[in-house]
Amino acid sequence: MFKKILIANRGEIALRVIRTCKEMGIQTVAVYSSADAESIHVKFADESVCIGPAPSSDSYLKISNIIAAAEITNADAIHPGYGFLSENAKFSKICEEHNIKFIGASPEMINKMGDKATAKATMIEAGVPCVPGSQGIIESFDHCKKLAKEVGYPVMLKASAGGGGKGMRAVWKKEDLEDAWNSARVESKAAFANDDMYMEKLIEEPRHIEIQIVGDSKGRACHLSERDCSIQRRHQKLTEEVPSPFMTDKLREKMGAAAVMAAEYIKYEGVGTVEFLVDKNRKFYFMEMNTRIQVEHPITEQVIDYDLIREQIMVASGEKISGNNYTPKLHSIECRINAEDPYHDFRPSPGKITNLHLPGGHGVRIDTHVYSGYTIPPNYDSMIAKLITTAQTREEAIDKMKRALDEFVIEGIKTTIPFHRKLMDAKAYIEGNYTTKFMEDFSMED
User: Fold this and answer.
1) What tens digit of pLDDT does each residue of 163-180 get?
2) Is residue 234 left, alpha or beta, with left meaning phi > 0 and alpha meaning psi from -120 to 50?
3) 403 catalytic, yes or no?
4) Which residue ranges form the domains of the chain, and what is each CATH number?
5) Residues 302-331: what's their mean pLDDT?
6) Adjacent-strand bridge partners of 213
7) Which of 169, 227, 233, 292 is catalytic?
8) Which residue in 193, 223, 260, 291 has the fewest CB atoms around it within 10 Å?
9) Mean per-residue pLDDT of the chain
10) What is the b/e burial string over 142-161, where b = at least 16 CB atoms within 10 angstroms of the residue's CB?
């Protein structure tokens, strides 16, 4: 087992990893930018190292600084959390070269699954259902036109190196294809320094349902049920739940088997998710694989009483996976609390928190790094907390979430708490009748 783990991240996920490490008797090293000097993850770690100024490119994405911090503190492993360098093959490789265990996927695995076109081709080989579309990178616009005709409109153009909705364009008729092709490539080039594109059939009325998987170095994998992540805004998840209200036992068995088959085919080691689009007829298609811990992992932990960070560390140290395929017996919902103003197009709202009251009670969990007096910097993702409620039924979990949101007080900044409170009263949400298009018809003014 590792003696000391450096957490190459910030905020609530850094604190989350530190907590599990402490329970396992593992020493921790926090890294931080100058903007995060007062962050609570810095205070809770056994050691801390400043790795640069506020911009991510000069700190949390600066591989040389993070490796130097690991070496001067004698850390024998690095946990990357999510985001930043968590799915960076170069970082994983450099850790390997410096005899530091990267608690995540190998560089080969990241390369195989990180590029969406390559991942899709691999899943087709594995026999996992995939959305009809290109079998790799689109070579030219002429190739693009030909593919669109073969696949049939509507189609979705996607950046091969994309994420967060950048470089994605839905195209409903051939007259709009060229403009979509050009604008998507420009956006992808600016965001990822890569303008490679691929194409998929556009799935109408889709649900975004992911399967949590764990694989070990012995080649065995299991799934820990699904999470429904369909409530999204600009392809960014807002709330998630397990089990999905759209799921059936038969569908879970099929999707779980497909996810395990995918993981075992590529000999996946670690914690990750296999992401699917599910159409209105409950046909499911592979979308992508995330080779890291997910933001929404707590709801899975809540329904199965299972520490995914601990499992991640155990598997990275060479242990066999401890779990088996799982069917949830409880219901858990997560609301992402962002420092954003939902009444003004979710505009970011950094600043000082002047007053904070966290909800509590049975079945309420909060993962956060903020406190009264803490100043939220403008440099990073706006998520400041995750509020999770767990109960015997979905109805009880929603009622508990309403009560917890009413108790949750954050003053000095704007947050998405009012949005989530309104969401919990929305008829379509209460009925579980929502898709990834839900936010197109949702308004804070109704």
Assistant:
1) 777 899 999 999 999 999
2) left
3) no
4) 4-103 (3.40.50.20), 132-201 (3.30.1490.20), 207-440 (3.30.470.20)
5) 93
6) 223, 272
7) 292
8) 193
9) 95
10) eebeebbeebeeebbbbbbb
